[in-house]
Each structure stands twice: as structure tokens, then as C-alpha cells.
Predict the structure.
Amino acid sequence: MWTRTVTTFRMTGRAKTASGGETPENEMAFFESILVTGGAGFIGSNFVRHIAGTHPDCRITVLDALTYAGNMENIADLVDNGRIRFIKGNICDAETARDAMVGAEAVFNFAAETHVDRSIEEAGSFIQTDVYGTYTLLTLARERGVRRFVQISTDEVYGSTEGEGFTETSPLKPGNPYSASKCGGDLMCQAFANTYQVPVVVTRSSNNYGPYQHVEKFIPLFVTNAMEGRDLPLYGDGMHQRDWLHVEDNCRGIETVAVAGEVGAVYNIAAGHSQPNLRVAELIVEHIGETSSKIVFIEDRKGHDRMYKLDAARARTLGWEPRVSFEDGMKKTIEWYQKNRAWWERVKSGAFREYYQKHYGERLEKGRPKGHPGKS
Ligand code: NAD
Ligand code: TYD
């Protein structure tokens, strides 16, 4: 059972222990044993690395179905050296998930179908994993009496904003099948907290970027396309905005909320680095330097949310704050993709080539190079 010192947090980002002494944030008391679902994906693998590095005594089990988005290379070193235990399995499969949860004090649910474009093509797998899978884990967490269930939700549940930053009490208005499915999982967590007192906390972060992100997503796609001399397919007028958060800042935020967050509460996590996509694309081209790639405006995504923006004041009251500036984060991220070409070349080969051709082929042919936004 969970016997560690309970901590409270101050605005400085240092944890205050129950006995009154101070602990630096990276030494704060944590759980002895955790289950991380979706730990072979982008944020999950970064979180596993973060916890493995900052809490050497914490036992970590990863449960991941290894869908097209899961990649054992993201955590292979930690599995090979015995630092973490890996179980291949689906969160919708109660038997496997039950086995994986044995001994876990806390569950961190990162597992999800995550790509908006794919959800527009086919939503069934999103509903299955993001809603039913979350329900399955909640049922098991209740059965096992876990100390914490941390649901990794998203800012996309609020839908598009006209400019104001959403708070945790803003209405939910998902604009696409991905965000609607995430809403289902998010609300199911709150229902389990209210009905069965499952000790849930929910994080809703803004768009993440950083190492190990699948190349289907905007920043890695543009960075690797620019490195390959391929064109950069910008949707619509390129003026849609995302509130970019470096994945390390999110991982620290999730850790803080898990330990210090109020049970049953929701926490937005964001850095306030809102940028139009066109600006991010230009910045990528500037950083990469010599490239024959052009930014090409292509047919817009259906139902494309115009702007995401969060108010993360509640998470800051726990002592968390972002540390990575957008400029430094982007520089580090681009360097990571430059140093890890073999990693993304493997991800971009095989089934991804087919997806890319089907999704972008014709649109790129019909698109207009930068300088002619808008009309088609
Ligand atoms: P990802 O697509 O990179 O990884 C998802 C992982 O989940 C993969 O390893 C995949 O194999 C696994 N998975 C999928 N279905 C599964 C199932 N049924 N059972 C077990 N494992 C399964 O996603 P990500 O970008 O790392 O996102 C992680 C979480 O964070 C998701 O819940 C997502 O909604 C949320 N989130 C992401 C962002 C972002 O910008 N990437 C922002 C806010 C919230
Ligand atoms: P994405 O990484 O898919 O994240 P999300 O849609 O969940 O926010 O896309 C980020 C932004 O980049 C979004 O406004 C859509 C845009 N985008 C493009 O313009 N071109 C692309 O090829 C992709 C994948 C995204």
C-alpha cells in the first residue's frame, strides 16, 4: 500500500513535505509502482523516461498495444536494461489490463488513438480505445483500489476558441471525432470519481512537440519533409493556431498533478506559446536551412478547429510552470530529428508511405505554393 510522505506544493516549484522540509521538484515523493498505458507512443515514452530518470526506485510497467503509432524503439533501451517491464496488450482487453495493473499504486492512461485526420476518415477505433478502453481501465482501477488514476485528456475537448484561454470550467464543445472520443473518456473518469470515488485526476494539455513524436503530426512531418526536400502541406490559409507545449514540460506537469492535484479535479497544462501554423512552418524552414521544400497551401481539414488556447493557472497553483521556451524547444526538437534520422526514416517507411500518398498526394498536386493563400 501507499505509505510515502504526502506533499503539498508552493508556487516556487519546490515541494514542501508533510514534516515541513523542502524537496526540489525533481525529488518530490512519487508512487512506488505505476502502470503507464500507451508508454510506447510519443508522450507516454517521454513520461516513462522522465520518471525512470527522476525516480529511480519507482517500478514502471508499460502496457501498449503497439498500434501503428506505438514504437518499441522509443523505450527499447529501458526494456533491455530491465528498468521497465513491458506488456503488449490492448486497454480494452480487461484480462490483460488486469494483469498489468497488479501491484500498481497509480495508473497513467496515455493510450489512445490520437490523430485528428485519421479520426475524420474512420472514428470507430477512436471510440473503442478512447472511450471503451478508458472505461475498462477505470473499472479495473476501482476493483483494485488504486491510489491514483491519471487520465491524459486534451485541450481539444473545449473545441475552438475565438481568442480567450479556456479554463477547466469552460464548456466542452469537441469539433471532431478524435476530440469527441477524448471527451467521452475524460467525462467517464469524472463520472467514476463521482459515483465510485475512484481517485481520478484529469490533465488537459495543449499540443505537445518534442522527440519521438510520430511523423504524421504537424511539426515532425514538416521537419522531416524539409530534411527530405519534400513539400510542406499546410491546411487551409495556415492561420490556425495551436498553443505549443514542449513534451518535457507536459511530463513534469502530469507528474505534479498526479502527486499534488485534487482528486476529481481537472488541470489544464499549457505554456502559452500560441502560434499560427504558417509561422511554425516558416520557422522550421529557417532552422533546417538549405532545402528544396516549399510550403504548399492545400485543401483544409474538414471541421478544422481554428484556435486552441488554455488558461493553465490552476496547474501553476500546484507549483508547476513551463520551463522550455518555444524557440529553444523547437531548436532542440529539430536537432533531435536531425540526429535520429534512422528512427524517423523507419517510421516513414512501410504503411506510412501509403497513408501519405492517399492523404496528401492529390491535395499537394492541387495546392498552391506559399504566396497564394486562400482561394483554390
Ligand atoms: P501517440 O499516438 O504517439 O501514442 C499512443 C500510444 O497508445 C501508442 O503507443 C499506441 O500503440 C498506444 N495505443 C493505442 N491504442 C491502444 C490500445 N487500445 N491499447 C493499448 N495501447 C494503445 O499519442 P501521444 O501523442 O503520445 O498522446 C498520448 C496521450 O496524450 C493521448 O491520450 C492523447 O490524446 C493525449 N494528448 C496528446 C497531445 C499531443 O499533442 N500529442 C496533446 C494533448 C493530449
Ligand atoms: P496536428 O499535429 O494534427 O495536431 P491537432 O490537429 O491535434 O492540433 O495538427 C496541428 C495543426 O497543424 C493543425 O492546425 C492542423 C495543421 N496541419 C497542417 O496544416 N498540415 C498537416 O499536414 C498536418 C498534419 C497538420
Remarks:
- Residues 1-24 have pLDDT under 50 and may be disordered.
